[in-house]
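Lab notebook, design round three. We kept the backbone fixed and only want residue identities now. Task for the bench partner: fill in a sequence for the structure below.
Input structure tokens:
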């Protein structure tokens, strides 16, 4: 668990993990409506809307009208967003290579196999039930 916490702290310092999560979701080339992004990330829709607005302002995503629903839109990764994901992946690989530079090739293979096994079996916990806002409970 200490390794996971170390990685998360490093990620949080290097980039906005919430924005990158949206970009990674779009990296397969699909354009998704905000509701599907929120569901896939187990995030509240208003939070996803703010992420989408920030990514659009930064030029990392593109917004297109939803052909099936004129009231909605679809979000797609832009070339700049893909370039940022590619850059982050390259930096991550370089950092990983630094961490394991003293390891033997067999140790790297073993670690990689175990890490893959760990992440393949990972289950995203359900989002906690949302109750009333704290200020509503005080008024009751």
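Proposed sequence:
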């Amino acid at each position: 668990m200490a390794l996971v916490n170390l990685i998360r702290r490093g990620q949080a310092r290097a980039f906005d993990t919430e924005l990158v999560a949206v970009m990674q979701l779009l990296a397969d080339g699909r354009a998704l409506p905000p509701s599907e992004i929120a569901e896939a990330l187990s995030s509240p829709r208003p939070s996803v809307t703010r992420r989408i607005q920030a990514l659009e302002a930064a030029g990392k995503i593109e917004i297109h009208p939803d052909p099936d629903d004129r009231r909605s839109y679809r979000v797609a990764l832009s070339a700049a967003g893909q370039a940022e994901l590619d850059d982050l992946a390259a930096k991550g690989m370089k950092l990983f290579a630094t961490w394991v530079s003293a390891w033997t090739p067999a140790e790297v293979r073993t670690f990689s196999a175990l890490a893959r096994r760990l992440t393949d079996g990972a289950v995203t916990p359900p989002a906690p039930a949302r109750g009333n806002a704290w200020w509503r409970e005080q008024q009751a």
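Keep this in mind before ordering anything: The mean pLDDT is 85.
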